[in-house]
Amino acid sequence: MAITKNAKKAHRASLKKHVFNLRRKRVVTSTTKDVKKLIETGKKEDAATQLSAAFKALDKAAKTGVIKKNTASRRKSRLAKALAKV
After folding, report:
1. How much is the pTM?
2. Is residue 16 part of a domain?
3. Quick check: 31 and 51 in contact, CB under 8 A?
4. What is the pLDDT of residues 19-69, one digit of tens each?
5. Which range marks the domain in which residue 40 is found?
6. Does some domain include residue 7?
7. Is 15 exposed, middle or buried, given 0-12, 13-18 or 19+ CB atoms closer than 10 A?
8. Is 76 part of any domain?
9. Is residue 10 part of a domain?
């Protein structure tokens, strides 16, 4: 457990950041799952609109440091490739 005043404050800040990071990560996974589901069912137009939301979520997660930049670009590439395949 944190002893000093600064350590207690840093711990509180890290707990707040943890909530934001979990929320950001949950949005990324849910949007990518939605896109994959729409691709599997063959709804190309709906998947294309959902793809932009997934790109936005991935970019925001990469910008804030939740995931790395190359990870975001790899996931975006794979989603776009899967949509083009349909």
Report:
1. 0.88
2. no
3. no
4. 999 999 999 999 999 999 999 999 999 999 999 999 999 999 999 999 999
5. 27-85
6. no
7. exposed
8. yes
9. no
